[in-house]
Design goal:
Blueprint lengths: L1 E3 L9 E7 L14 E13 L2 E12 L2 H19 L6 E13 L5 E14 L2 H11 L4 E8 L2 H29 L4 E14 L28 E15 L1
Antiparallel strand pairs: 1-8, 2-3, 3-9, 4-6, 4-7, 5-6, 8-9
Length: 238
C-alpha cells in the first residue's frame, strides 16, 4: 500500500539522510537547491487475531469420474459440517486431478486432491471445526495473522503519529543545516506487515478413522509487526 502525504503520513524511529547538493547553472531549477531526502520508519507489534487454515482430501480411482465423485462428496460433506460454525468463513480451495501410468506409459488410474480454506477471528470455533474435519480431511497448513479491521485501525493511528514525527525530523534537519525553515517537496508512504511463520506448512498427517474423534487444538496465535515507512524530500530555506 503506497500513498502520498495528502492521504496518509508516516512515522519515524531510525533515519537515513542524503543531501542533494546541486550546483547553480544556467539550466538549474530554483527548487533543486538545498534539498534533503530522508527515510523514516516505525514498527509496532500486535497480537494476531485471525487464523487461516487449508485442509484437503486426496484420493485415487481407476477412472476420472469415480475420482471426481469421491472428491466432490468429501468436500460437500465438509462444507455441510462447516455450516455449523457461522463465525468461520469457509471457501472451496484448489482442486487438481492427474493420471497414473504404468511402466509402458499406459494410464492405469487417476489421483486427485481437493481442498477447502478456513478463515476466522473465532479461534475456539475454528479449532473445533478443524478437529471435526480432520476425521476425513488432512491439514495442509495453519497460520495466524492480523485481521484487516484491526490492521487498518492500527495503521491509521501510526500514520497520524507519522505526520508529526516526519515534521519533527524535518525541523531537526533544518536546525542542523542552519536554515531558516523548510518546505516539503514530496513524501511517499508505505505500510508493511511481518507475519510469523505458519504453525504448519506443507504438513502431511494421516487422517484418523471416521469413528475416532479428533480433539480440538489450543491455539497460540503469536504476534505480528506492523510498520510504516516514509521517504521524502524537503527543501531548506536560507
Amino acid at each position: 500500500m503506497k500513498t502520498t502525504l495528502l492521504n496518509k503520513m508516516a512515522l519515524t524511529t531510525g533515519t537515513a539522510c542524503l543531501l542533494t547538493a546541486m550546483m547553480s547553472g544556467a539550466h538549474a531549477e530554483p527548487t533543486g537547491y538545498n534539498q534533503l531526502t530522508f527515510q523514516t520508519e516505525v514498527k509496532e507489534e500486535i497480537q494476531n487475531d485471525e487464523v487461516r487454515a487449508s485442509m484437503y482430501k486426496k484420493a485415487q480411482a481407476t477412472n476420472a469420474k469415480t475420482l471426481a465423485t469421491t472428491l466432490n462428496t468429501s468436500i460437500n460433506n465438509a462444507m455441510k459440517i462447516a455450516k455449523r460454525y457461522p463465525s468461520v468463513t469457509v471457501s472451496t480451495g484448489q482442486q487438481r486431478t492427474y493420471p497414473r501410468y504404468d511402466k509402458n506409459d499406459k494410464i492405469i488410474g487417476w489421483t486427485g486432491q481437493a481442498s477447502i480454506d478456513l478463515k476466522s477471528t473465532d479461534f475456539t470455533a475454528t479449532s473445533q471445526l478443524i478437529a471435526d474435519l480432520q476425521e476425513t480431511l488432512v491439514m495442509d497448513n495453519l497460520s495466524f495473522g492480523v485481521s484487516e479491521t484491526k490492521k487498518d485501525a492500527l495503521e491509521q493511528k501510526l500514520m497520524t503519529d507519522a505526520s508529526r514525527a516526519f515534521q519533527n525530523q524535518a525541523k531537526n534537519l533544518t536546525r542542523a543545516w542552519d536554515a531558516r525553515g523548510y518546505r516539503v517537496v514530496n513524501v511517499n508512504l508505505n505500510t508493511g506487515n511481518n507475519y510469523p511463520r505458519p504453525m504448519y506448512s506443507g504438513m502431511r498427517v494421516r487422517a484418523e478413522a471416521a469413528d475416532a474423534s479428533v480433539p480440538s487444538q489450543n491455539f497460540e496465535s503469536g504476534n505480528s509487526t506492523i510498520s510504516v515507512t516514509a521517504n521524502g524530500t524537503i527543501e531548506l530555506t536560507k
